[in-house]
Amino acid sequence: MKETLRYLAGIAGPSGYGSKSTAEQVSQDCCSSVPSHLTAIITGATSGIGAETARVLAKRGVRIVIPARDLGKAAEVKDEIQRESPKAEVIILEIDLSSLASVNRFCSEFLALRLPLNILINNGGVFSQALEYSEDKIEMTFATNYLGHHFLTERLLDKMVETAAQTGIRGRIINVSSVIHSWVKRDGFCFNQLLNPKNYNGTRAYAQSKLANILHVKELARHLKARNARVSVNAVHPGIVKTGIIRAHKGFITDSVFFIASKLLKSTSQGASTTCYVALSPEVEGVSGKYFADCNESDCSNLANDESEARKLWKQTRLLIHRLLYQPTA
């Protein structure tokens, strides 16, 4: 009850920010400490929280790379950013996060640009009411929200480590998760069922993918620490925002429910605030393997904190990616 009241009132936490803080406010306060010439890749930046994150970071002088399936939408976002910030550098490259081959092509194209990489924000996501499969024959929500981002991070990690070593600026990876991850129980998180569910439920699939995003953070943080890499990785819960994912599926949460629950909803800028805080704030320097909500470190579920579960998911994911990319079936 105390946390709910704090959320509704927008009471600031230890960071000085709370549920009502906006991305503009958070990034403005960080302005004096943001190094120049940073480069950020932001998935899902053609709308919603991702587009707002890109706009605000560009306003603070960060070079933005937008991986996009819809290049037309990406071009519109670029135009909007540059109308507000004429000096902003925005690069658009094609990607389909549900396709490992497409993610691989994107990474090769980005690395060929020989740009530094300071910030990677794994923000893109889908919510699929009906059971769909990717071209790799993986359930679409899991393929897009988790598997594609895991592989994207793996392919770009050496570039981030290299950039951090050359510049002395710690790299930051951010997985956008959701509080809905806590709905998943241990007996409902089976890798083979995530890939090819027998009894599909869209909400459950979304929650499972968001749990996987946090487990990815936990295990990657351990690997980065073991190699003494100057790169941090954290997960964030943006809050409940009426983004394109929800608007496209009125059966999931209807407009009437949104009207009734309007006091619980965040604006897009409030939803992007935690991502911007973890991406830029000097207070998060060196913090890794954590979960943030309302711009403050928060608690995730016991399952999300399970080191053995994180390690198991990591191994299963790496084996799957290797099989799909290097041992394709006819």
Automatic annotation (TrEMBL):
Matching InterPro entries: NAD(P)-bd_dom_sf, SDR_fam, TIC32
Gene3D superfamilies: NAD(P)-binding Rossmann-like Domain (3.40.50.720)
Family the entry assigns: Belongs to the short-chain dehydrogenases/reductases (SDR) family.
PANTHER family attached to this UniProt entry: SHORT-CHAIN DEHYDROGENASE TIC 32, CHLOROPLASTIC-LIKE (PTHR48476)
Protein name: NAD(P)-binding Rossmann-fold superfamily protein
